[in-house]
Each structure stands twice: as C-alpha cells, then as structure tokens.
Amino acid sequence: TKFFDKKPPLTIDNIIYLDKAGRFYIKSPSFNYDEALSGVKVIWQGLDSQIKYNKDFNEFNKKLTIPYFELSVPTKGNVILKNLIYYSNYSISKNNIKVGNTDLTMNKLAINWEESVNFGFKLGNVLHSLTGITSVELLNGADVIDPSSIEVNNLLYSTKSADIDDFFSSQALVHFDTLTTNDKKYGPFNMKFGLNHMYSPAFSKLLDSIESLALLQAQTESADLQEKHNQIFISELKKYFTPIFINSPVAQLDEFRLNTPNGLIDIHGMATTKNFESQDIIEQKKFMKKLVVDVHFELPKPVLSYLLVLQIKYLLSSGNAQMDAQSSEALTKVVNLLLDNQLNTWLKKGYLTNKNDILSTNVKIESGILFLNGNATN
Question: Under DSSP, is residue 220 helix (H, G, I), strand (E, B) or coil?
C-alpha cells in the first residue's frame, strides 16, 4: 500500500481466443518511495510484459521490459537496474527440445552491499541459457561468485537454436562493456559459442535421463544408493552419447575475449569426433583416438593463479565457509610456488610460451595423441 499508493502492484490479463490460443498481459505501475525517517528509498518505473501462446501450449512469444529500479538502504547499500529488455520466441521440437531465439539487453546493473552478495551462480543454468538444454542440474554445484559489489554495463545476450532433420544446433553471443567487482574492472567481453550437429533423438533422451537421475540423487541420502545411481548415470551417458558421437557433433568456441586488469584472456577452438563407432565408448583409449580437439589458450599468469586459488578455496570450504586473511595469503603463496614449478617444467618442454607473463599454448588431440604447443606429450 505504501509503495503503490493503493494501486494493484501487479495486473495480469489473460485473453483466450476462439482457437484456444491466448495472450497474457502483465503490468506493474511505477512509484517513488522515500522514507524520511529511515532514509530508505525505492524507485520503480514499472514493468510491462506479454506472453503469447498457441492452442497446443508448445509455442511461446515473450517480452519483458523494466525501465528502471533503484533500492537504497542507509548503512546497508544500494541496487540499481537500468533498462532491462528481454525477448524470446521458442517452441518445443518434435524431439521435445526447446528451440528458438532469445535476446536480452541491459544498460546497467549495480549492486553495492555491506555484506557479500550470493548470486546463486549456477554453471548448469548458464549452460541451459546458452544452449537451450533444460536438464543440467548436475552442473549446478560450481557457485563461486560471491562479491560485495558488482556493476555490469551494456550487457547483451543472444541465442538461436533449432532442431532440423533430427539434428539440434545452438549459437550464443554474449557481450558486456565493463564488469566491475570488488574494485577490479573487467571488459570489454565477447563470447561466441556454437553447438552443432547434435543427434536430437538421443540428445533429448539424454537430457530426460539426466534430469530424472539428478532429481533422484537430490532425494537420496544413502551413500550406497547414491553410488548405485552414479553407476546408472554412467551407463545412461554411454547409452545416449554413443549415437551422438557417431554423428560427429561439433562444439565451436569462435571467440572468448576478456580484458582483465592483468591482461587479455583469449580462447578459441573446437571439439568433435571422427569415425566414431559404438564400441569406442567402452574403452578410454579407443574413445581418445576418435576425439578431435583444437583449442588455443592465451591468458595472464596472475589470472591462472587466481583461478587455481579460487577453486582450492572453494573445495576446502565446501563452498560455504569464509577463509581468514592469513590462511588465504598462505594458500596463495603455496599455490603460486607449485604453479611456478609446473610452469617451468612445461616451458622447458615447449608445452607453453610465456611472453611478459602472458601464457599461451595450443591444445590438440588427434588420433589419441595430445599435442601442447605442437609438441606431442608422453
């Protein structure tokens, strides 16, 4: 009542047409709230959204706009969101995979809070957004982003996916001008990723299997049962990945470029299979001989060190507990020492090049042989 001045905070109108198709109109009115005593301030310029659906309820057209939102709480922090526009047009293919187009733009998101902000970052959800894959709960354990402040400017995100002649394909584009977190500025960032020639009938069944097993694992506390489910999961992976690999799917990373305070991260490459046969899924050596990978990496050494420290911290704390400053400093020294020793070994063997603390290499896997920087590894 205070915020919306007795206006309905959210209005939803559902129009159903004579052919049973329909459209939702969703609106929220704007308001300015300023509490003089506490200093709490909220600005909300409203929300407009509409969802169109067909009579079979398997084709959807969605649009959402949020012009501006600001929340300011003295001694706690503030949140600002500017000009969020989301659009998607998708359908469910005959192989039960969601396909279509998605576009999102946002001028600014800024969060400054006294305590660290848990964004609930989930790798599985990111993969779902990029590829349209809906069953990725097993990847959702890697939530390591937990800053006290973050600001993103001019975010662009776009995907296109299709399921044609029993082959699924998806392309994604991500860009932002700058991302500032904990006083460090990153950007610009550009990523172009493609997933092509995925055999849809097996791919769809694989997704369903992963989703059901992930749900089963979440509901199981017994270690013996979880191990049993893991064995079932491995068996299902082999079963459905076999026809996928036989049809030579291609994962193509055309561009991944991010400017960091320590230098440029540049990654691009591809992975596929060649002449894959059903028995190759059984033995690792046979599988590796049919795998083709060609990826170029270039990244600053401090970034690699930071990623290793971050991962070890996460593992040591199980993703929950905070490590004190003294322990964190000691861990960083140990990781840097181990990293230096390993890098020196790889540099002597020619597996890497180091130019002004920028590490680069080319990773190739062909006929079961791993090449680093053009040199075959033992």
Answer: coil
